Design the sequence.
């Protein structure tokens, strides 16, 4: 089976520390040892280490619902603005993927390299694999270290993983992802340009 290398990078925004580390990784100025690929639906085990340099290549970088200054953070790190696509439609992990999967299809992207924090990676892998995989798009994931953990936990609860897996499946079969409910529960996640 032919395995496509990543053709786009998806940074799950929402955490300034994650966005800064992803910017450094994309610019080739990551402090310390580069993180390893923790998951891949399409890469052989022996080729996973070489994927780390993919972020330094000229791949487009999609930031899903990053902070207002994420473009500036990437630019200050030395990432050319023409590589950066900031998408502000998502309000949670499920919509990080549902809002961009059609864009990836339209651009004929066959493999996405997702970047998120070690705390968030398990849920993001489950949701991303379901949503991107339902459209024939492979996904690999890089987990960045994080100093921030919710409730002192190093990993999200299985309840949150299962809840969002169910929402991803609901979206696959019905097109409804429940993001409007998330907007009610988390109005602070509205991007200023989207507020009514």
Sequence:
């Amino acid at each position: 089976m032919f395995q496509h290398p990543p053709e786009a990078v998806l940074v799950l925004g929402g955490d300034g520390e994650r966005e800064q580390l992803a910017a450094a990784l994309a610019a080739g100025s990551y402090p310390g040892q580069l993180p390893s690929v923790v998951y891949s639906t399409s890469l052989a085990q022996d080729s996973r280490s070489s994927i780390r340099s993919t972020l330094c290549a000229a791949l487009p970088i999609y930031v899903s619902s990053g902070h207002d200054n994420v473009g500036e953070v990437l630019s200050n790190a030395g990432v050319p603005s023409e590589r950066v696509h900031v998408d502000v439609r998502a309000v949670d992990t499920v919509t990080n993927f549902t809002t961009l999967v059609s864009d990836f299809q339209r651009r004929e992207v066959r493999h996405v390299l997702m970047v998120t924090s070690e705390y968030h990676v398990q849920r993001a892998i489950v949701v991303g694999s379901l949503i991107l995989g339902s459209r024939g798009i492979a996904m690999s994931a890089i987990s960045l270290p994080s100093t921030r953990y919710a409730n002192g936990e190093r990993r999200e609860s299985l309840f949150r993983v299962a809840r969002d897996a169910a929402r991803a499946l609901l979206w696959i079969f019905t097109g409804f992802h429940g993001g409007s409910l998330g907007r009610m529960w988390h109005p602070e996640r509205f991007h200023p340009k989207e507020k009514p």
